[in-house]
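To the team - magnesium ion complex, inputs and output below.
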Amino acid sequence: MKVLLMGHPNVGKSVFFNRLTGAKVFESNYPGTTVDFMKGWMRLEGEEVELIDVPGTFSLDPKDLAEEVAVKMLEENRDSVVVCVLDASKVERGLYLALEIIEKGYPVVVALNMWDVAEDKNIGIDVEKLELILGVPVVPTTAISGEGFKELVSKIKETAPVKIEGVIESASAVSAAASAGKEGGGESAAVSG
Ligand SMILES: Nc1nc2c(ncn2[C@@H]2O[C@H](COP(=O)(O)OP(=O)(O)O)[C@@H](O)[C@H]2O)c(=O)[nH]1
Ligand SMILES: [Mg+2]
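Output:
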């Protein structure tokens, strides 16, 4: 088993990597390219597990060489758990990539990083509702302070692949409940602010 850190550029993947890995880390170029990535090891329930800081990508439909490498690394590591790092202050933008990775059948943990920034901007995210919709663990994190990391790490071995059809069904159910709630004056969107 390996752990892949994936997400858009500038969401905090490298801060995650540095916080999770020990002293032994390697920087290498992806074979045949100048695209570099970091590889290290993290402790997971007493086991040393390889952690890869995958180049940032907006989607699994690559638009440049770095994105191509990101997609290849995902495909070459079928036995991986993917920690999908999203910027909690721009959560809608990152969800598409998370859904694409879930759809490919990888076990995923979603990190809502930059939680401190989201809080400063008064962006409220209903983490439980998002978890209910996605069917995978969702953990608020602030990588620069380490907040949420203990919980995040504990979810890596717990997560399992989910069917995208299930995600679509639960999203429809939640949105139906939200419109019913609105009629009654309630507020049920997963993201507000
Ligand atoms: N406020 C805040 N800044 C963060 C957080 N995580 C990362 N950063 C900062 O965001 C920038 C991008 O982080 P980096 O790890 O290089 O992003 P990457 O491109 O995904 O690897 C850096 O300046 C980090 O210090 C966080 O949770 N909160
Ligand atoms: Mg980085």
